[in-house]
Amino acid sequence: xxxxxxxxxxxxxxxxxxxxxxxxxxxxxxxxxxxxxxxxxxxxxxxxxxxxxxxxxxxxxxxxxxxxxxxxxxxxxxxxxxxxxxxxxxxxxxxxxxxxxxxxxxxxxxxxxxxxxxxxxxxxxxxxxxxxxxxxxxxxxxxxxxxxxxxxxxxxxxxxxxxxxxxxxxxxxxxxxxxxxxxxxxxxxxxxxxxxxxxxxxxxxxxxxxxxxxxxxxxxxxxxxxxxxxxxxxxxxxxxxxxxxxxxxxxxxxxxxxxxxxxxxxxxxxxxxxxxxxxxxxxxxxxxxxxxxxxxxxxxxxxxxxxxxxxxxxxxxxxxxxxxxxxxxxxxxxxxxxxxxxxxxxxxxxxxxxxxxxxxxxxxxxxxxxxxxxxxxxxxxxxxxxxxxxxxxxxxxxxxxxxxxxxxxxxxxxxxxxxxxxxxxxxxxxxxxxxxxxxxxxxxxxxxxxxxxxxxx
Length: 457
Ligand code: C5P
Ligand code: C5P
Ligand code: ZN
Fold this sequence. Notes:
By secondary structure, the chain is an alpha/beta fold. Helices cover 43% and strands 16% of the residues. It is built from 17 helices and 15 strands. It has helices at residues 2-14, 26-41, 56-65, 121-132, 140-149, 162-172, 192-197, 211-220, 239-255, 260-264, 285-296, 301-308, 314-339, 362-370, 400-403, 409-419, 440-456; strands at 17-23, 45-51, 69-73, 87-91, 104-106, 176-182, 226-227, 230-231, 267-273, 343-344, 349-352, 381-386, 391-397, 423-426, 430-436. It has a six-stranded mixed sheet, sandwiched between helices. The chain has a five-stranded parallel sheet with strand order 2-1-3-4-5. Strands 6-9 form a two-stranded antiparallel sheet. The longest helix has 26 residues, at 314-339. The protein binds cytidine-5'-monophosphate (2 copies) and zinc ion. The site of one cytidine-5'-monophosphate has 16 residues, from helix 14. Residues 27, 74, 93, 120-121, 150 line the site of zinc ion.
């Protein structure tokens, strides 16, 4: 991988101008920002765009625009052919075939490394950046935000593999800190009741989704919810208070029959951006990633990129406003998805949100739905929505236990989508596709056939 990174670094050093194409999620934005900072530090000109997915239309347009050099980050591994007169660099981590025709292609799967939890798109891009100039190690903070945005810490409750190396780079460069703490989202910004109400890994029986029950939970433990009229957050608690809460949560889970292994998932590594203000949306890597998702998934990628590149003025203010909208949108979309009938088939379960959910957040909603009590954790969950272009967007998510039985959603969706003139791909545990409207049933049959085969191997 390092050798390939060096080849790519040499191409970038020689170029005058670089056009960057990246993905609209947090990993894509951090990857794009790392690429942009790297080019800027080389004193060269760059332009950047964000796309929902890399399809034939985007590639045709890029070819027409006549760029000398295009750097694809967090996407690009699916490109089948070279484009004459356009040099292409790809730093991606999605599943791909080992026989790639692309010359400047850096993807962990080409080197036997798993791109679903050992390295993200931002990480692959960071590897090139660090190879160009060791001074770029400060960008490791963005690589960790990208990995957390892609939930790469989920399997082991901490970052492992190359992600861990990037974390160490960041600690040495004083841009990152690592602590052992509760893993629920919102340690730094959520008021205590909401912090537990939205906890989902593991879900807290009787508390998840119930604000009043969460308030009583803290009252019973004699934990004050406010201090001088402002709501207390997890980071405002004393060590003893945290211990009291964790013991009570552990007791709750164990009495409800949860395994000790599941209880342990509450605790893990959390990553802090050492140069950011504690209690801000940028201090915790997961919260930073959510702030970025609030920008590019709503067509405002320039806001997220500017925040990554250091703007703590207008862009951060704008991002905070977008975050409010994103939160509201998630609450409403999740409710919408819950109101749809969940349809169970032999090998998958699915819901179809029609026009009810934005195609850019269906993946996040499907992920959240997977944790719902009435959703079967033993089979993949698919969420369907209509897109603005009149197509159908599909997001598929599953659990570690299912992939351990041989299921690979990336292969299943890629195969099924291609058979109905769509495109699909991703990771074993999380994949997506876009297919023509009306092909949903045919697509589901094909996905199920593929999963049945995967399970029987
Ligand atoms: O396109 P990209 O690779 O950046 O996106 C990865 C997607 O996979 C994210 O939506 C992330 O939430 C999802 N994922 C997941 N569970 C994991 C790993 C990734 O849902 N364990
Ligand atoms: O869009 P969604 O979040 O459901 O995608 C899950 C994963 O599948 C992401 O890593 C995404 O980049 C990938 N994907 C893909 N090809 C598509 C759609 C999604 O590789 N056509
Ligand atoms: Zn990614």
